[in-house]
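Technical annex B. To support the medicinal chemistry partners, we prepared a structural model of the target in complex with S-adenosylmethionine, based solely on the information shown next.
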Amino acid sequence: MADGNGWSVKLSGVPETLLWNLFMRAYEARRPRPVLEDPKAVELVDRIDYPFEETFGAPSPLRAQGQALRVRTFDDAVRAFLGEHPDGTVVTLAEGLETQYWRVDNGRARWLCVELPETAEVRRALLPDEERRRTLAQSALDLSWRDEVDPARGVLITAQGLLMYLRPAEVKELIAGCAERFRGGALVFDAVPRWFSARTMRGEMRTAHGYRVPPMPWGMNAGELDKVRTAHPAINEVRELPPPRGRGLYYGALTPLLRRLPAVRNVRPTMTAIARFD
Ligand SMILES: C[S@@+](CC[C@H](N)C(=O)[O-])C[C@H]1O[C@@H](n2cnc3c(N)ncnc32)[C@H](O)[C@@H]1O
């Protein structure tokens, strides 16, 4: 709702986490030499009337950069898809206030965001739909969204920051539902490892400021990626998408090396992957 100072956004539980992500993207984008250019995120944070810092605490530069690199991994996957399918459809499940369209759109593709009604309302108010970019107000688990997608010119589905909040059986059904309908398409998703999921389920994951991360029932270690193929026979490839190299010692030098060590691979707090459908 708009008041004198800006758009007042009231969300709770999992939907509220989108504001944390937005806040970190904008924080990184404001830094000198950012790993992610995201002027639209900066604009949104300035427009929204919400106690970002009081709720989540001041962003840690390391965490914000990590988040931005994860976002870049998704952007790169979408860019690669649009390179091959310039008139294709990008389905963004649980897009929140992601501003990826403004970072990577090619002026031709179709975009369909599938979001919970309370989030869809906020998104539509702040980022109104356009001819090529629509928002559907429904759960991604209600697979009727698939009927809204024209698969003729290629389909890429993204689930950025979604699957960990679902139950394992729901994750399997959602992936299977995508594979069943969109042969030749792909799903890009991220996952948290099992130890991380378990800690959120016990209510132990908090920011330094005290914000409690909502429960994440689905966790999967990087070493288990191949299991995703069992969701549906049309899944012919599942592989990790490594994040781009970042800035500084940790993201610029250490993480690209550590990722290759099996012991470290399974304990990293997030991983992004692509599942391709035959
Ligand atoms: C961590 S936020 C991620 C938002 C955005 N993708 C990003 O990375 O900034 C989680 C998002 O999941 C959405 N969400 C949760 N359950 C959902 C469901 N069943 N269907 C669609 N969206 C869902 C919430 O509304 C929220 O926008």
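Notes passed to the chemistry partners:
Strands lie at 2-3, 6-8, 48-49, 89-93, 110-115, 133-137, 155-159, 186-191, 235-240, 271-277.
Residues 68-277 form a domain with the Rossmann fold fold (CATH 3.40.50.150).
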